[in-house]
Write a structure and sequence with these properties.
With about 375 residues, this protein is α/β, with parallel strands linked by helices. It is about 40% helix and about 20% strand. It folds into two domains: about 260 residues, 3-Layer(aba) Sandwich (Carbamate kinase), CATH 3.40.1160.10; about 90 residues, PUA domain (Archaeosine Trna-guanine Transglycosylase, Chain: A, domain 4). β15 and β16 form a beta hairpin. The two termini are about 35 Å apart.
């Protein structure tokens, strides 16, 4: 049986309909306390957790006393601006009970699709996780107008899971999984516990309309599932309405639908680097670097003896030995001008040479595919 106990890096997406009391327009404090208790339990077991949380607009519209019914776009943006403060404070207070630091990260889908912004966001979150913090992520609704129009944070949760090479994504929603039809209107709808491929038949099961309590509905959850599976990340759709919903999923006492990929997050990422991108340049390395790469280590500036091509930070480059033999391909951490300044030098010299403290590696091992 699939469970969360084996997860090393987990993304949990929380829908606004389960976090916010619809009638009062306030956070369900008992629900949030139980969620953060379970996050702390995972954290203590060595699992890195990222929370992608909706709810800012619903909280903000109450605080601003906006009328019920559909909001204008500018009203949604204003509500998001004030509601996000309340959301961040609530998570901070709930996790502070366990001595866990919270970090707020506001993203748009563009941040996950434009390579330089993608790399910056990924590095920031990797650093936060390495420092033991729990990033709480929401869409930057004050600028991300397309996302407000589109719907829920399901896609963002999947993009974040892809970005940080998470092994598991959980979508806590108002339904306990995928069915052959809408179980609220179709008594013959059958629950599907496991999905290994999102086929046209699976997509047809989602229908076109979202639920009343969620902007995204099953359609966006399948979009998220497609992104997660392509990234080698397993995904669960689970009913999050009850207090302690995440804990029940951890303990295996509640059912959900699992979307299971063929490969691991790292293998999927490296397959993408190797086969999907065109090389923008070449790094020539010395014998010491050749030995380090063969042992699965990162490529440091000190091992680089030559540079060819014109590339920007985040571009794919080939790594070759002195004879021209291709050793690896990877995402370079520096633009070509900066790479030339630090080539052959020790990582401790980077700040003095460039005027800022960049990454210690020219190409990190997680971004490197050895031939």
């Amino acid at each position: 049986m699939t469970s969360l106990t084996s997860s090393k890096r987990l993304v949990v997406k929380i829908g606004s309909s389960i976090l916010v009391d619809e009638a009062k327009g306030r956070i369900r404090r008992d629900w949030l306390d139980a969620l953060t208790d379970d996050v702390a339990r995972l954290h203590k077991q060595g699992c890195e957790v990222v929370l992608v949380s909706s709810g800012a607009i619903r909280l903000g519209r109450t605080h601003l006393k906006l009328a019920s019914g559909p909001l204008k776009l500018e009203e949604s943006q204003a509500a998001a601006a004030t509601g996000q403060i309340q959301l961040a404070h609530a998570y901070q207070a709930a996790l502070a009970r366990h001595g866990i630091t919270v970090a707020q990260v506001l993203l748009t889908l563009d941040d996950s699709e434009q390579r330089r912004r993608y790399l910056n966001a990924r590095q920031t979150m990797a650093t936060l996780l390495g420092l033991g913090a729990v990033p709480v992520i929401n869409e930057n609704d004050t600028v991300a107008t397309d996302e407000i129009r589109f719907g829920d944070n399901d896609r963002l949760g999947a993009r974040v899971a892809e970005m940080i090479s998470a092994d598991t994504l959980v979508l806590l929603s108002d339904i306990d999984g995928l069915y052959t039809g809408d179980p609220r209107t179709d008594s013959s709808a059958r629950y599907i516990p496991e999905i290994r491929e999102i086929t046209s038949e699976i997509e047809a099961m989602a229908g076109a309309a979202a639920s009343n309590l969620s902007n995204g509905g099953m359609v966006t959850k399948l979009i998220a599932g497609r992104i997660a599976l392509a990234a080698g990340c397993r995904m669960a759709i689970a009913d999050g309405r009850q207090v302690g919903a995440l804990g029940a999923l951890i303990d295996g006492t509640t059912r959900c639908s699992w979307f299971l990929p063929e490969g691991s997050p790292l293998s999927a990422r490296k397959k993408w680097i190797k086969g999907s991108l065109t090389s923008a340049g070449t790094l020539v390395v010395d014998d010491g670097a050749v030995r380090a790469l063969s042992k699965g280590k990162s490529l440091l500036p000190a091992g680089v003896t030559g540079i060819d091509g014109e590339f920007k930070r985040g571009d794919v480059v080939d790594v070759k030995d002195r004879t021209g033999r291709l050793l690896a391909r990877g995402l370079v951490a520096y633009a070509v001008e900066d790479a030339r300044r630090i080539a052959g030098r020790k990582s401790a010299e980077i700040e003095k040479l460039l005027g800022f403290r960049g990454r210690d590696e020219m190409v990190h091992r997680d971004d490197l595919v050895v031939e």
